[in-house]
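Researcher: Quick test of sequence recovery. C-alpha cells follow.
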C-alpha cells in the first residue's frame, strides 16, 4: 500500500446500538488504523444517535432510513467526494478481527479491485456465512486468496476507482439483494476483479434462512424486497435484460411452488404478497416503503381470500395499464 493512500472505515447502522459499539471497538483495535471512521445512521430510534454524538473520533452522517442500499450509497459517495482511496465497508451487526485490515492491505493486487475479508459466523467462529460453494467449514479453506468471492458490505475494501467505474449501490433496492446486485455489477458488468483474503476475518451473524420452512407473513415484510429485487440482481448477474427476465420467471415459479407445496399457513396471503412484489419488479415500482408493506400485510394479505384476489388483480392491472393510479 502506498503511504499516500487514505483509508476510511464505513459502517451503516439502524437501531442496533450494542452491535454498533462492538463493531466500532473492533475498528479501534485494528493493528493498522483507518484514517477516519464514518457511520451512516439510517434514522435510528434507539440510543445510537446519542452515543454517536459523544464519539469524537467518528464522523456521523444522519439520514432518513434508506436501508442498507441507501446507507452504503451515501457513505461511498461521501468517501469518494472527500478523497479517500479505500473504503472499508461493513454492517453494524458484524465486526472485524484485530488484524483484518492489515491482512487486506498486505495484498499487492492491481487496481481497481474489491478485496474482501473471509466472512465467518460470529456465534460459532467456525462456519462461513456464505461463499459461492455454499456454507463451508473454516477448516476446509486452504487457499490464501479466493478469486471471485466477495461480500461488498461485509468487511470489504472498495477502491475509489470501483466507485468511479461501477457507480454506487442501487438506492432503489433498499435491502435484501442490494449487496448481490452491486457485486454482480462490479464483477460481471464491469469485469472488476474480486477476491477474498482468507487470513482476514470478519465476523457476522449467520444468514442461513430457507423459504422452504414455515415463515410468518406478519413479520416477513423484508421478503417483499427479496422477491422484488431479484430482477435487478439477475439483470446485473447476466448483464442481459431478456435473459434476466426469463431467469426471474423461473425464480418466481420456484418461489410460488414452494409456498403452495411447503407452507402450511396463510398460503393465499403469501401468494398475493409475493405476486405484488413481482409485479412491482416488472413495472419498476421502487416507491414502496417498509411501512407500506407492513400496512398491506396487516390490512390486505391477511384478509379473506376473495378480497385478496380482487385487490391483487386490481393492483396488477393498475400497475400495468394505469401506473399513475396504482397504489404505492
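Model:
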Amino acid at each position: 500500500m502506498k503511504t499516500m493512500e487514505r483509508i476510511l472505515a464505513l459502517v451503516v447502522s439502524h437501531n442496533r446500538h450494542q452491535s454498533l459499539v462492538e463493531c466500532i471497538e473492533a475498528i479501534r483495535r485494528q493493528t493498522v488504523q483507518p484514517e477516519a471512521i464514518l457511520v451512516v445512521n439510517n434514522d435510528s430510534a434507539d440510543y445510537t444517535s446519542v452515543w454517536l454524538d459523544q464519539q469524537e473520533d467518528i464522523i456521523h452522517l444522519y439520514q432518513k432510513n434508506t436501508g442498507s442500499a441507501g446507507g452504503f450509497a451515501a457513505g461511498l459517495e461521501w468517501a469518494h467526494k472527500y478523497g479517500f482511496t479505500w473504503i472499508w465497508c461493513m454492517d453494524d451487526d458484524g465486526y472485524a478481527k484485530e488484524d483484518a485490515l492489515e491482512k487486506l492491505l498486505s495484498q499487492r493486487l492491481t487496481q481497481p479491485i474489491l478485496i474482501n475479508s473471509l466472512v465467518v459466523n460470529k456465534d460459532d467462529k467456525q462456519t462461513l456465512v456464505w461463499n459461492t460453494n455454499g456454507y463451508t467449514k473454516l477448516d476446509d479453506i486452504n487457499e490464501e486468496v479466493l478469486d471471485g468471492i466477495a461480500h461488498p458490505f461485509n468487511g470489504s475494501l472498495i477502491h475509489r476507482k470501483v466507485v468511479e467505474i461501477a457507480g454506487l449501490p442501487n438506492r432503489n433496492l433498499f435491502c435484501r439483494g442490494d449487496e448481490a446486485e452491486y457485486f454482480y455489477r462490479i464483477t460481471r458488468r464491469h469485469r472488476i476483479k474480486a477476491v477474498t483474503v482468507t487470513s482476514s476475518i470478519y465476523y457476522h451473524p449467520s444468514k442461513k434462512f430457507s423459504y422452504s420452512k414455515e415463515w410468518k407473513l406478519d413479520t416477513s415484510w423484508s421478503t417483499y424486497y427479496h422477491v422484488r429485487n431479484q430482477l435487478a440482481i439477475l439483470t446485473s448477474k447476466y448483464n442481459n435484460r431478456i435473459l434476466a427476465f426469463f431467469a426471474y420467471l423461473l425464480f418466481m415459479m420456484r418461489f410460488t411452488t414452494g409456498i403452495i407445496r411447503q407452507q402450511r399457513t396463510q398460503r393465499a396471503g403469501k401468494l398475493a404478497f409475493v405476486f405484488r412484489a413481482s409485479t412491482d419488479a416488472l413495472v419498476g415500482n421502487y416507491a414502496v416503503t417498509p411501512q407500506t408493506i407492513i400496512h398491506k400485510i396487516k390490512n390486505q394479505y391477511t384478509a379473506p381470500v376473495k378480497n385478496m384476489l380482487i385487490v391483487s388483480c386490481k393492483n396488477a392491472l393498475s400497475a400495468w395499464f394505469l401506473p399513475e393510479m396504482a397504489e404505492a
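The chain has a mean pLDDT of 88.
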